[in-house]
């Protein structure tokens, strides 16, 4: 969503927005002209922002862009239902052609995909290096929040939105994460 909305948000609001942008630049530096791949949502890989990042930073590499809604759903099954999704992830990787492409690195271009890092690695005979931006995002948030002392002790007004009904266990986890409201919008996530 960052690649499609962050510029607009920054224009509309006088607030810092920390964007989640795929780690194309560090992956390209690591690959040094060798093959690399980006795993992200279909909307992300089709976006102009990604095309520009690839052009600007990975022009010397052969880059395969893979958009997968199925990996998003598998990550949610793993996190929310403790499901074993290893076989399903391996099938998605195989069907995408990444096994044959054999990239030196894979960029995890969706916030869901680090939850599948082990499954993605194990889908390859020779595991590629995985890149995600979690550490960089954490450092940026820490930098921006330095000096902010207010901590909310009241129930949050933030709303957790899911694309399917939550089980009672999932609702409890969402509440424990500090969300004050929960809502299900089954048609929200579409390609």
CATH topology of the largest domain: Rossmann fold
Total strands: the figure is 6
What's the helix-strand series? Answer: HHEHHEHHHEHEHEHE
Question: For this entry, what is the oligomeric state of its chains?
Answer: single chain
Second-tier CATH architecture of the largest domain? 3-Layer(aba) Sandwich
The DSSP helix count reads: 10
Short description:
Helices cover 47% and strands 13% of the residues. It is α/β, with parallel strands linked by helices.
Could you characterize the architecture of this molecule?
- This protein has two domains: about 140 residues, Rossmann fold, CATH 3.40.50.1860; about 40 residues, no CATH class.
- Helix content is about 45%, strand content about 15%.
- The chain is built from ten helices and six strands.
- Strand 5, helix 10 and strand 6 form a beta-alpha-beta unit.
- The longest helix has 13 residues.
- It is globular and about 45 Å long.
- The two termini are about 15 Å apart.
- The model has no long low-confidence stretch (mean pLDDT about 85).
